[in-house]
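U., I forgot to send this yesterday:
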Amino acid sequence: MEGAKEALQSPILISLCMIVKNEEKVLGRCLESVAGIVDEIIIVDTGSTDCTKEIASQFTECIHHFQWINDFAAARNFAFSLATKDYILWLDADDILLPEDRNKFLHLKQVQLTPDIDTVTMLYNLSRDQYGKVTSQLRRNRLVKRSNNFQWVGAVHEYLAVAGRAFHSDIAVTHSPLEHDADRNLHIYEQRQKNGETFSPRDLYYFANELLDHQLYNRAIEYYQRFLATKQGWIEDNIGACGKLADCFYHLSDSENQLKYIFTSFTYDTPRADFCCRLGFHFLQANQLPQAIFWYKTATQLEQPAETWGLVNYSCRTWLPHLQLCVCYSRIGKYQLAYEHNEQAAKYMPDDPRIAHNRKFLQSFIEPGTSN
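Result:
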């Protein structure tokens, strides 16, 4: 009995490890959001010239310097090596825990987290709409047992290589950037390329992403195609590459190859809602309304997939296909159906002005005597 009491009196302790550089605009917000729920804060600065270190000093004395070598994994591994508590949490400076997720985190720490758990995954909210609803989300290993000495891998778009027992929590970390160095990652990849480094399939994919973000569409296409040709990519990255190739060809006004890669995504898994909406949009633009209706309806009828680590586009799973079906049915004079789909969209975004506009317009057709 004494042993049981002692165990209850020995809570699991958590270190927060972060790497930062010139984050004065967001770091305080991040650290304030986790104050009181972690037991140690370790800040590794990679060369700040603003007030980042002064802000960090308001929350911790554990501030260290790491000479930047264009390698995010190296910096994160150094930060992890400084941790002294049972588990390590990692965040970026423009991440926050919202109040609801702070409470969930405390519950995890006090009740759910047991020493046999090697890693805890958490949701990562990448974007929200004007109503605060999450529009895109994925899952990441976020909290790991320190004694396992898990390592970060990859100079850019690094990932934490973990093993063992995982606990999949419903805690969400919310990404809330104000600004970022848009050229940094591209420059790192290009320097690695000049140095003659061989890119892994993952490198090819993320290098292509950087090229796409910089609107270098033809170069992006080359590296997405090289990535897919390796046949070694993670399935979610394969599907992502197909979507991004479709985007590239859309910007280049090449509808044939745009369609090719939308359909190629179906070879990796059953159709995803966002690809069905891509097809719906393609046919809507071409005024091929029966085809557009088919694909938008398909998006609304897909079963929600089991929990996935890939990027989830909630708009295409919820309101967007219904709003587009409203447009399609209205164009062919099926106003009652258009109205019904507009109301379906309204369940997800009731205050959107497009919903109110459509409702007023359609009522004039389905309710005699109502004016436009």
